[in-house]
Amino acid sequence: MFIDIANLKKSYRTGEVVTEVLKGIGMKLDKGEIGVILGPSGSGKSTLMNILGGIDRGDSGQVLVDGIEINQLNDGKLTDYRRGDIGFVFQFYNLVPNLTVGENIEVVSNISKSPLNTDEVLAAVGMQDKKHRFPRELSGGEQQRVSIARAIVKNPKLLLCDEPTGALDYDTSRSILQLLQQVNKKYGTTILMITHNAAIAAMANRVFRLRSGEIVEETVNQTVVPAERIEW
Ligand SMILES: Nc1ncnc2c1ncn2[C@@H]1O[C@H](COP(=O)(O)OP(=O)(O)OP(=O)(O)O)[C@@H](O)[C@H]1O
């Protein structure tokens, strides 16, 4: 099992008030699979993703990723894990505005242990012709393609996507989802994606429904639907 989470709990304290955000989460995902986390606003999706990505820590429970118990790593090791093993894609692309597309990718590949080739990755996301453009000269969908290229150039073990199509129109969203499925096939990258959109669940191997900090339903899709055939 590539991701194996058991009884994960997380609370936040604001002044005197303690809010239990994750109440004993258990979930598993195999290597090379696509997982989708569905759930309403405030259900704990980003908190779970942040713990898996080494941005935050759980209070208790097990978070095994590729055999590493990340909840037990010291700060330095957790940073290495986050930098080396995890690719992030967010709703807003967070590209560096005064760097070109190629440079945005190279700042990551330059500090990676075994990066993929920048031109190869740009070709994989269909952006090879825009290498010398600046982010402001690109559409939202194109910027998201670049942010996916930047996430995969380090050849991450796990790609975490938080509402990757949240800011995009229908057709562009579908092309980005298609791209994520292609990345999953081409590089064998395990992908975990947060979304509000239940229709997107059809493209995943496993679907986890989160409500108030608990997984209330897990579905295994026997047939994974290609993103270009998903409609909503
Ligand atoms: N750093 C923090 N300090 C205090 N409370 C927090 C913190 N981060 C998250 N929370 C609270 O934890 C709960 C879950 O937040 P989280 O961002 O994980 O939800 P979400 O499912 O991702 O929501 P959304 O879909 O709106 O992004 C919310 O009630 C939020 O206010």
UniProtKB/TrEMBL annotation:
**What residue ranges carry the coiled-coil annotation?**
none
What the entry lists under PROSITE patterns is as follows: ABC_TRANSPORTER_1, ABC_TRANSPORTER_2
Q: Name one GO cellular component term.
A: membrane protein complex
Chaperone in keyword set: no
Keywords annotated in UniProt: ATP-binding, Nucleotide-binding, Transport
SMART domains, alphabetized: AAA (SM00382)
Q: Does this entry carry the keyword Transport?
A: yes
Organism of origin: Sinanaerobacter chloroacetimidivorans
Q: What is this protein called?
A: ABC transporter ATP-binding protein
InterPro entries from the entry?
AAA+_ATPase, ABC_transporter-like_ATP-bd, ABC_transporter-like_CS, MacB-like_ATP-bd, P-loop_NTPase
The cross-references to Gene3D superfamilies, in alphabetical order and at most eight, read: P-loop containing nucleotide triphosphate hydrolases
Domain named ABC transporter: residues: 3-232
To which protein family does this belong?
Belongs to the ABC transporter superfamily.
Q: Name one GO molecular function term.
A: transmembrane transporter activity
The family database entries (Pfam families) matched by this protein are listed as: ABC_tran
